[in-house]
Amino acid sequence: MCESAGRSATAFVPGHVTGFFSAHPNPDPAAAGSRGAGIALSDGVTVTVTPGSGTRLNSDAVDIAPVDTVLDRLDVAASVDAETPLPLGAGFGVSGAVALGTALAANAAFDCRKTENELIEVAHCAEVDAGTGLGDVVAQARGGLPIRLDPGGPRHGSLDGLPATPRIEYVTFGELSTETVLSSDTSQLSEAGEAALDDLLVEPTVEAFMLACDEFAAAAELLTDDVSEAIAAVEAAGGQAAMAMLGRTVFATGNGLSDAGYEPAVCGVDPAGGRLVDPVA
Amino acid sequence: MCESAGRSATAFVPGHVTGFFSAHPNPDPAAAGSRGAGIALSDGVTVTVTPGSGTRLNSDAVDIAPVDTVLDRLDVAASVDAETPLPLGAGFGVSGAVALGTALAANAAFDCRKTENELIEVAHCAEVDAGTGLGDVVAQARGGLPIRLDPGGPRHGSLDGLPATPRIEYVTFGELSTETVLSSDTSQLSEAGEAALDDLLVEPTVEAFMLACDEFAAAAELLTDDVSEAIAAVEAAGGQAAMAMLGRTVFATGNGLSDAGYEPAVCGVDPAGGRLVDPVA
Q1: Of residues A97, A101, A78, A75, the one with CA closest to residue A86
Q2: A152, A210, B18, B259 — which has fewest CB within 10 A?
Q3: pLDDT band at A280 (very low <50, low <70, confident <90, very high)
Q4: Across the strands, what pairs with B162?
């Protein structure tokens, strides 16, 4: 039961590109999730929660199912304002970021007295229930280059990470529906994801991660032509690039995309993960 | 086996004040540790590792047993330069920070290809073996306001956190030997620590944390006169303060110490935990 009638609080949650994953459905959403690895980005979502109603993303009124679920679970009536430079529906985990940011900011604004793990679980379950993501929330809560060793929220999953801070470039060619992919047969994809994770744990480096991502995208048959072309161009220029799961987005380490003649967005790794940025005194 | 002859790499690790804890020895250092809660501070230790030998702390040659152990485990010959504004031997987890920073930076400098959990475990075990700390390393790796739910390194322990970012003030009156306290009978202390953790998990807020710290320090009979006096002065001025375990250090939230007439050092919470800051290209 939240204690306060509410004030304003703001959270920042990094964007997250997944490089490979295996899907692990479970009737209990807290235990459902994905194994895999990705990168938490310094480009992310800033979420401000105040008493009221309605959700806005970059000033446009939107309906984000996981946000409504988070507010319901916390039993608060709140207005949610999210701002992000990240492309939408393109594999950056924006819905997970808004869900987690809403949980963190609403907890602070309404004195809900939850721990971080409890808030991460609320946001994770809301994403799983909506079918909009399986592993973004736990990765976004952790920050860095998260490796999801086991599927699920904080009580079930466990995480590791690659100790590195590469510069990241990315370009986006358009949307790809997470819901459509996740609601199809994911057995081929998951087999490729398990193999990629095994490879990464043998050689936990950024270079090996990027290679594992490429092998996964090919084996899972998720590459689109524009994505394939960009990855090939980066590799021809001596760099490493991979596809963001799930979006028509290519991310590269270092100057991979700019060296290949693209004009990418540039960011870094966010080492901290989701957090309050406007402390409530 | 590390792959490179070595170059230079730098890591930052936050200081950490423990507010209360229970000690959980174990013949396996990876499983040994403490339960409890504390604060990862934006004041921390910057550790630069290069090929060579010798350890320096704020430019003075020093012998830090856990640092030697970390370098031995990674099988590298390195020079370690640590810089910190934090007082030494005063409950800020400087030895744990140097150990973890050495692990992170040496891994990058020598291409040791370890994951973050593996590096945290190396540093945690080195601290436990040296008797210089039980729970600082895992808390410093996590960042935020870490709650150590279970003792041990990443394969054994589990962590939660308080979602808050208070301003922190601190004053130090002198050293207190962690080794002496930890090598004495810790049963009374641990009983008080378990009770404090139970209380915090019922009400996971910063206010409840500070109260739990005070009850722990009194029950564990660790308060010194100068520390008691400062805590009482802060409380008389309407604030909250507690003793850093283990040091003759008082930390307060908000303006607690300055409102009580002290001239404290001021910092914030470090949300990210130990990380590379000088990426190896």
Answers
A1: A97
A2: B259
A3: very low
A4: B145
